[in-house]
């Protein structure tokens, strides 16, 4: 259909060189045009002779830009869906509810479960494009999905206050992962330094949001944090208190310094998970599984 | 001629088959949706009959109001009997939670008490004991909602109690939820620090988008892919871009650290989430009943929706007693000879003529009588207790209430195996 479009460029014939591609795994560039002639509206035979499907440089550039944007939008929606489902299934309640955001399990489970897709995305975006935004891209997609869910479903539909259902802020950890990869150009360094930072940054990143809800109040002779009180007062019929998987006692050796231990443990496991998921990302950054489609 | 007409019609139908199929599907879908009503209940009927009959018995349940304004309080009070007949298939209520069944927080729960203890957390209950409960609620969202009592039991799931329709009037925008902090400050829990949540999320979201946009704006995907594929990937990231990355990293860490420090100074006294079980809940001190009941035999007639059970009843008290009520699974079956006044209880759970006796005369002090109690009502079926006949442990349980002329009341837990009768004999 693009072949029949009129040529918009009014200048004389231009020979454009587009970097040749050896055509890896049949992806974009496998049969990439190497020459674009711009000589008015070329006849079909003339274009064939010129070896390009495009009428002009502008048309080629426009199509490439369109392809970029389509790919960006498609990847955003695909990763939003995939990562969001993964997140809800593996650490959903810790992220859904403020009275699950404790000192031990929340900073442990979330980074470990959520470093997965960003690691795979970094493998894809960095190896294929040298784009250092895989983790940030995934986290922005996840948060977009989460906010749509929390605002329309949890608040708009069921009227839970946003203070009960806000999602965990993950962007600083993702930026950390991406920039470590950018600076080191090594996925091993990114796994060791970046994934550790990813784990360590979760709690301090979210503390400005969470801290006000950890103020104390006395309710009928019982000490409660505001987070506990929000969870209690705003009734969740199918969420009895005992379902909460939260710290129910101290770490005996570490006393109240639970967060640091949890964060380091989380960072350590995130390193291992990062390696694994980087290879998952590499494994699926190919079109070979779809060649038969 | 006829053959020609039919073949023409057949050809026409064949050509239109796709459209006809789509039209049929649309009509079918529309027809199936026409009968769909609003979802009113909380799935209590889906729970097995034995589970609802043999675990708990909520009685003397009262809703202080059935119509409240936004910000107006109401309470549900009553008694909760934990049955001795607790089935082996359900974990004992050693970790349980007194809950409310409502469609989202249409009423906020300001407090709930069991045995006089404030119980915002999980608690431990004992079989055979009866506890007084109270739930204090406050109207939040206008509408008409079915509000239940509910006890959730770990590994056993929710066991729902009776429900009542509550009308909430007003405007949710006027709802406030003041809470006093330990430092004396009063905050509105409904909206407290929500703008702070939006601020931090928006800030980091924008930062993330800018980072993505910064890298995407130059060459996008296709150009970069071609460059990487042709071995020029290393040229794609310039030293200047790495410096920018380093600066972004430094700023990110700085913002995290500084905001953490500011927050720590703004909220120097914070506590962790509070958790743990509440034990030693005081049970009601109910004097031992002078009425002794021995269950002899029972049958459940499936077509007639009747539970017929024979008991040997001994009255060791000083007054004559009469059987006035059988309560099970939130249903109340009343003896109209005893309950002569209208009882205030949700109609869908009240069979005000559902209990009849083989001998309606009072049981005199010192007397022992064999009485057959017939509990019959369509509510056996509408509340799906008729499934009793299909349970793996075909047993029932409930509370039998005895009344004295002076107004005394004795509740006795009864129950045992029942034999179903599937066809009229």
Instruction: Give the full name of the CATH homologous superfamily of the largest domain in chain A.
Output: Ammonia/particulate methane monooxygenase, subunit A
What's the total helix number of chain B? Answer: 7
Distance separating the two termini of chain B: 63 Å
Which CATH architecture of the largest domain in chain A would you pick?
Up-down Bundle
Radius of gyration of chain B: 33 Å
> What proportion strand of chain A?
under 5%
- The number of domains of chain A: 2
- Computed structural class of chain B: alpha+beta
Radius of gyration of chain A: 25 Å
Helix fraction of chain B by DSSP (H/I, runs of at least 4): 10-25%
Q: What global shape of chain A is seen?
A: globular
User: Percent of residues of chain B in beta strands?
Assistant: 25-35%
Please give the order of strands in the largest beta sheet of chain A. Answer: 1-2
Shape of chain B: extended
Please name the CATH topology of the largest domain in chain B. Jelly Rolls
Summarize the largest interface: chains and residue counts. A-B, 98 and 99 residues
CATH superfamily label of the largest domain in chain B:
Particulate methane monooxygenase, b subunit. Chain: A, domain 1
| Counted beta strands of chain B | 21
